[in-house]
Specification:
Strand order of the largest sheet: 1-2
Order of helices and strands: HEEHH
Number of strands: 2
Radius of gyration: 26 Å
Structural class: mainly alpha
Number of helices: 3
Shape: rod-shaped
Largest sheet: 2 strands, antiparallel
Distance between the termini: 72 Å
């Protein structure tokens, strides 16, 4: 072959590699978005479960994650005292405080998981924006459980595997 043919072949190989890298990046970002949607749905379900649990005890979860007495809580406690006496009221108050502690732990786990998902997503999207392929580079704290690329074994697919602790899913442990 001539020198022009060699240059054309080299240019074709370079363009082919560039297209492959960009396709891998688009695939990794698509996988990340799909995983992120699934993770957000799981977090919303866990938060809804925590809210339902809180409501059963006259508690509400504020936007900042605090678990506080809901409106009309004093009336419910007065009814418990009237119907069952001071012992029933004390037992109801103890159960409510135990539930408050459990729900607070659930909410904190949900918020921590949400922060981790956000940080992982930001790291991957930042790398993609900088031109690095998310399929070939991962933040150090991301587990490489499923290989997107045989070269690195790294993928945003780990987000699908991320699970909430049992306490954050409303399960008693």
């Amino acid at each position: 072959m001539g020198q022009g043919a060699d240059a054309a072949q080299l240019n074709f190989a370079r363009l082919s590699d560039d297209i492959s890298d960009r396709a891998a990046t688009v695939g990794a970002i698509t996988e990340l978005v799909t995983s992120l949607i699934d993770q957000v749905k799981a977090l919303k379900r866990a938060l809804d479960d925590a809210r339902d649990h809180a409501a059963r005890f006259g508690l509400v979860i504020t936007d900042d994650g605090a678990v506080i007495d809901g409106p009309g809580t004093g009336t419910a406690e007065a009814v418990a005292t009237a119907l069952g006496g001071p012992a029933a009221a004390a037992a109801a108050k103890a159960a409510k405080e135990a539930a408050r502690a459990e729900i607070t732990a659930q909410v904190q786990a949900i918020l921590a998981t949400a922060a981790d998902v956000e940080a992982d997503t930001t790291a991957i999207l930042t790398k993609a924006a900088e031109g690095a392929s998310p399929a070939t580079e991962c933040p150090s704290r991301m587990p490489a459980r499923r290989a997107r690329s045989r070269r690195t074994g790294c993928s945003p697919h780990h987000l699908r595997r991320r699970t909430l602790p049992d306490s954050a899913r409303g399960r008693r442990v």
